[in-house]
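Morning - nicotinamide-adenine-dinucleotide inputs below, output right after.
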Amino acid sequence: MAAAVPTITLNNGVEIPQLGFGVYQVPPEKTAETVTTALEVGYRHIDTAEMYGNEKGVGEAVARSGIDRGEIFVTSKLNNGFHRRDDALRAFDQTLADLGFDYLDLFLIHWPLPGIDVDFVETWKALEEIYAGGRCKAIGVSNFQAHHLRRLFDETEIKPAVNQIEVHPFLAQDDLRAFNGEHEIITEAWSPIAQGKVLDDPAIVAIAERLGRTPAQVVLRWHIERGDVVFPKSSSRERMAENFALFDFELETGDLAMLTGLDRGERTGPDPDRFNYIP
Ligand code: NAD
């Protein structure tokens, strides 16, 4: 039996499991089966998005699992075409309907889209309304830079509970993570193993060999020890289990700094200051 996943308390008191399972690029027709396997392995936190097209599969797996809804933390995200208030409210209803849930644990603005003609402050106010309605336990943002967050602090009521951003050893994001932390916003690290790109790095391989672990476990453990929330994606049961076995070992002195020192500002995904894509 794997050691228990710790939880982190969000700024409104809600508890989130620090390790979850991400379903980006899991094909819709395979999602129910993949999430069923993840739940069998032990994951109790699933990260999806309307943009991924697979919310129905996530909901199906949760329903079929027989596990209490209250024991599974599910996050979804507002898609880019729905930033206007009325569209955001409707999109949230659609997300709940597709998941087959009567509440969501965490709902995020997926991207700030600073170049479109809808101000993300309007979008955030819509999420505040959704939160006030009681069908979502926490609200947050994704891909927000410090300057986007400052506008929310100045112009709206509720602080985001999380900021989900790209973080891995090639993009350590220490400034933005520190900024999140100063404002009681939990950092969630997306693409935590850079979609596999960091796993051949000789420094990471060397630490893994010394600890008798895999490179993926070493990198995921680095995130955990830095206090971020992670949800690696995998399609195979073996890798899901490998990525879940993070709580029966620790990095050694110097390993944390060594991994952070690999930072080279390298994104695998878009730059949030330039990304304005609407599907
Ligand atoms: P990831 O860093 O989790 O890497 C996933 C890929 O790495 C898999 O496809 C697999 O090929 C490989 N892999 C997984 N485990 C492995 C292992 N143990 N050994 C070797 N290779 C392994 O990348 P991701 O899926 O992009 O990110 C994780 C989650 O983050 C997503 O599923 C999604 O939920 C979220 N995400 C959010 C955003 C956003 O804009 N908010 C963007 C991207 C991803």
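Note: The chain has a mean pLDDT of 97.

O.
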